[in-house]
Amino acid sequence: MDLINEVDFLVIGSGSGLDVANAAANRGQSVAVVEKGPLGGTCLNRGCIPSKMLLYHADVFETIESADAFHIDAEITDVDFAEMVREVNEDVSGDAASIRKGLRSSPRHDLYEGEGRFVDERTVEIASGDDEGAQIRAETVLIAAGTRPAIPDIDGIGGVDYHAMTKAAVIILAGTEGHENVGRLANGLEAAKEFAETDGDEVELIFDGAGTQWIPELEDEDSDYHELSQAVRDDTSVCDYCSGAFGVEDAVAEAGLVTFDDHDGHPSIRSLVDDDYEIITF
Q1: Edge-to-edge, what's the strand order for the sheet holding 109-113?
Q2: In this structure, is residue 160 part of a structural domain?
Q3: CA-CA distances (angstroms) from residue 205 to 74, 175, 195, 214, 230?
Q4: Average pLDDT, the chain
Q5: Given pLDDT bands bounded at 50, 70 and 90, which one contains residue 79?
Q6: Which CATH number is 37's domain given?
Q7: Based on the domain organization, do 171 and 244 belong to the same domain?
Q8: Residue 43 domain-assigned?
Q9: Cα separations (Å) of 51 from 1, 61, 62, 89, 133?
Q10: I need a labelling partner for 277 at 20 to 30 A (CA). Which of 30, 65, 105, 210 fits?
Q11: DSSP string, the chain
């Protein structure tokens, strides 16, 4: 069995939990940080920061469009959305790498990369990732890994009319050959659209495997399914490895679609299940 690293303070999650970890380290406590994904948490990698960076481009676009109000003659001739997304992703990845480098080089922090699981009240074992098998015990453990919706155990709640949020990951695996695969694409897009249009639901539409071949066709305005795919575009992502394997990486980049590579170049189904997504494949 691996030796157990004993520290004063252990935080699971590297988003806002890092603020507390740094405060503990500044007080002279020994600190360990456990993170299974990119450093920086949801805010840096998928939430506040990248969304606001993209929104700033929209603000600039709007300002240029209204330039005549300031007696300035300006014209927008092109918008390279793919380059905007690439630049934002590059900046976010750079920030996450910088946090990782800082923690790895810090004499006051121990970084463990992988999924942490409790083996007793104050001991966490790393169950996956680069540091799999390591164990850390701390007097104080902070779980700062985000939250999930739950239905509280309250008397009478069963009689209340409310909508329990559904989280669905619709994965298109069907290729472009054959009438049956066209049907699978159409059904998958319709399913994703239904979830997207239901208040409170969350949906991820993922093109994986041979399904990535659909991207160039769906981007074509003359495609029978272009309009339907546009209805769920904001919820669409593509397997990074598969887009290269099937030769559509340029079309994916030009479309400005998000790519998943969190499991050896592929989307992590395990992470989706862990985040309470129902997996639906077509």
Answers
A1: 109-113, 31-35, 4-12, 135-143, 123-126, 116-120
A2: no
A3: 38, 15, 10, 13, 12
A4: 89
A5: confident
A6: 3.50.50.60
A7: yes
A8: yes
A9: 44, 16, 17, 11, 35
A10: 210
A11: -PPEEEEEEEEE-SSTHHHHHHHHHHTT--EEEEESSSTTHHHHHTSHHHHHHHHHHHHHHHHHHTGGGGT---------HHHHHHHHHHHHHHHHHHHHHHHHH-TTEEEEES-EEEEETTEEEE-SSTTTT-EEEEEEEEE-S---------TTGGGS------EEEEEE---SSSHHHHHHHHHHHHHHHHHHTSTT-EEEEEE-GGGGGHHHHHHSTTSTTHHHHHTTGGGEEEEHHHHHHTT-HHHHHHHT-EEE-TBTTB--HHHHHHTTPEEEE-
Give this prediction's pTM.
0.55
Report the distance separating Cα 82 and Cα 57, nearest Å.
12
Look up the domain containing 80 and give its range: 1-147
pLDDT one-digit tens code per residue, 19-75: 999 999 999 999 999 998 889 988 888 778 888 888 888 888 889 988 999 999 998
**Exposure string (b/e) for 122-137, b if CB count within 10 Å is 16 or more?**
ebbbbeebebeebbbb
Res 165 pLDDT > 70: no
For residue 156, is it within any domain?
Answer: no
Tokens representing residue 13 in the block: 């999650």
Query: Is 211 a member of any domain?
Result: yes
Q: Of 147, 176, 202, which marks where a domain is finished?
A: 147
Neighbours of 268 (CB within 10 A): 16
Q: What is the pLDDT of residues 42-53, one digit of tens each?
A: 888 877 888 888
